[in-house]
Amino acid sequence: MTRVLLADDHTLLRHALREALESADLEVVAEAADGEEAVRLAHETTPDVVVMDVTMPVLDGVEATRRITTEMPGTRVAVLTMHGEQRLLAEALRAGAVAFLGKDSAMSEVVEAVRAVAAGDIVLSPEIGASMLRELKSPETLGTSGGSPLTAREEEVLQLVADGRSTTEISEELFISAKTVKNHLASVYAKLDARDRTQAVLTAVRRGIISLHED
Known about the structure:
- The protein is an alpha/beta fold and 215 residues long.
- It folds into two domains: 3-124, Response regulator (Rossmann fold, 3-Layer(aba) Sandwich); 138-206, Winged helix-like DNA-binding domain superfamily/Winged helix DNA-binding domain (Arc Repressor Mutant, subunit A, Orthogonal Bundle), CATH 1.10.10.10.
- It has ten helices and six strands; from the N terminus they run βαβαβαβαβαβααααα.
- The protein has helices at residues 11-23, 35-45, 61-71, 89-95, 107-118, 126-136, 152-162, 167-174, 178-192, 197-206, and strands at 3-7, 27-32, 49-53, 76-81, 99-102, 123-124.
- Strands 2-1-3-4-5-6 form a six-stranded parallel sheet, sandwiched between helices.
- The longest helix is centred in the C-terminal third of the chain and has 15 residues, at 178-192.
- 39% of the residues are buried.
């Protein structure tokens, strides 16, 4: 069973998230009201996924995410944001977050995102993708290296990851097995010196290998 840590300073939202996740047979192992507590509880409970509010007292969600993903690479972080917090998304992505959801998302969307994250996927909504596109298009973030180290097929797979496709969806779209998709991604990680899908996408967009599409 997927183990989840909830980190948000709003008690009612935490309770609603707990109820939705537990109703979907996901185990909520702990709740944190601030970023410092989230880091401590993550070490104590070793969750598979942390659902992290991006703005919290004591220690903000970005720094808490950075600490958790650095110190506990097996734990993946899904970030919750309010409208107007888009400027923090790039920071959260760099900190290691692998999913980005608005606090106005339906609980069913949060449940689906947690399951996807636990399975190794990233969740990047169209709105978040547009925000990241603007960030990554800025001159200071664009790389200048010429050429791509990836094969055409690896670029194709990574572009689909950036478009929000799961491993299963990519395998069906490209008529290859899920294992082949994972093999391509492993090769991508090695060539881009990336630890996961999110980092690979960020690196590839910066280098102009793939793009985030603005819907």
